[in-house]
Amino acid sequence: MQNGAPKKNNFIIVGGSLGGLTAGIALKRHGHDVTLLERNPSPVLADQGAGIVAGGDTLSFFQKYDKLQRPLAVRAHGRTYLNKTGETVYKEETPSNMTSWDLAYYLLRANFDGLDSKYLEGRSVPEREEGEGKAVHLHDHAVTGLEECDSGKRMKIHYEKGDGERGSLEADYVIGSDGQGSLIRGVVLPGTGRSFPNYCALRGTLKENDATLATREAFDERFTFFHGPGTQILAYLIPGVNGTIKPGERLINFVYYTNFPTLSDNPTTHPLSPNVPKETSRNPPNPNPVSFQDIMIDKTGGSHLTTVPPGYVAPKLWAREIEFANANLPPQFAELVARTDKPFVQSVTDVNAPQPPTHNFNVFFNGKVVLMGDALAGFRPHTVASTSQAAFHANLLAECFEAGWNTPTPVNAARRPEPNVVNGGITFYDTSNGMGRTSKAQETGQERFVRESLQFARKVQRRGVEIGNRSQFEVLSLEEYIRDRQVATTKRTDEVYPDWVW
């Protein structure tokens, strides 16, 4: 604090997708200077081709920080469940909001570093206002390491560019928002990477007007589902080209979960999730006719670890997926699989949130390095919460620095104990409240961020594992599938946290 005002800091954010951009915008608006490092050699990330369920935290973030205020989402007025023949067997009027990765990305870039695009619909790029920090976006900067500098007061990030040039940058704080394969997480929490629970999401879109009438009706402003043995598929409308939400030009976005038995016990290939019994994961119900190893080889012969990008799935293999879909899915869903022109594959993976007692924190180097978003906890997509988690973390992070990252609540400052530093991270102990940690009234901003972000991450990450395993490896009643979906869409503000999450 300086004269009662929060200190303005310099941040480096590692990762230039939605999580990094939301954090950058929130910190910039609070007056901090932000440099964002993205490893991709292109100045603009390629369209991910993906739909996003825009949860409460995502909508709140855009309402608070988006200066453009153009329409962000398509409204789904309720959920519909189909049977194998395509008949509606259940409906509930539970509204949802759906957007696209590319629309969210371009709006965030416009707000962060002034990137113009057709997604702005003719609106002017937002100007930097008085009191805002500086924002710098650097692509082609692959982070290779980090260390303390300036006698432990600051952090230094090392990077390498595509042409081999190496360099370093210094900052007061480093935010690791570089996704499930986070390099920052690998440095501060070694040995806690991803695991593979033996199923993938086959994804794609179809323009609304290109679908048959029966298929358009099944997904017309509805969040629609089908469950079968070892199979789940869902679809909903998202904004179309350049973010249009005009009826007929929107896209029907589908996510098709199908099981891929592991062909190797070599953990370096894809370790089995500890949350899936080995025998079940080796012999899942209704396995896909294409092997996991084959589906991850694209049409050019290139092999991918987690994602085959839109338009790169090998046509011969996708033809087999169409046959499998025709045999196993309702006709409306099978049409989406057959007619999408740029399908892509996402391997479902688990990244567990740091767990006590060994890892009871997500800040390191005395609070100068922070993990957020997917770098903290990678949720299975059933939770529809990854983007909302990033938006929640970004807003929470800015609030906690505004309140004082290392400053306890003044009224209880005299009673606050010193934190214990363990392996560069911080655990908080307070014997006065009998809970083994600092009470909320005594928290610093840093402690509040750790508590709130880890509570949510731990609970939702476990929920995703449980719902995903039930969907893919068990045969449940329709009522159970419906109940799981209702639980998955619990508002963060309505969550009740059991003792084990904190």
How would you describe this protein?
The protein has helices at 18-29, 56-65, 101-113, 183-188, 213-219, 278-282, 292-295, 315-328, 331-339, 386-403, 445-473, 478-488, and strands spanning 10-14, 33-37, 51-53, 74-76, 79-82, 88-92, 96-100, 135-138, 142-149, 154-160, 166-171, 173-176, 199-207, 223-228, 231-238, 251-259, 307-308, 344-347, 363-364, 369-371, 420-422, 425-427. Mean pLDDT is 89; it is low at 263-275 and 409-436. With 502 residues, the protein is an alpha+beta fold. The protein is globular. Strand 14 (223-228) and strand 15 form a beta hairpin. The strands form five sheets. It has an eight-stranded mixed β-sheet with strand order 6-5-14-15-16-13-18-17.
SSE inventory with pairings:
Layout: E1 10-14, H1 18-29, E2 33-37, E3 51-53, H2 56-65, E4 74-76, E5 79-82, E6 88-92, E7 96-100, H3 101-113, E8 135-138, E9 142-149, E10 154-160, E11 166-171, E12 173-176, H4 183-188, E13 199-207, H5 213-219, E14 223-228, E15 231-238, E16 251-259, H6 278-282, H7 292-295, E17 307-308, H8 315-328, H9 331-339, E18 344-347, E19 363-364, E20 369-371, H10 386-403, E21 420-422, E22 425-427, H11 445-473, H12 478-488
Parallel strand pairs: 1-2, 1-12, 2-8, 5-14, 12-20
Antiparallel strand pairs: 3-7, 4-7, 5-6, 9-10, 10-11, 13-16, 13-18, 14-15, 15-16, 17-18, 19-20, 21-22
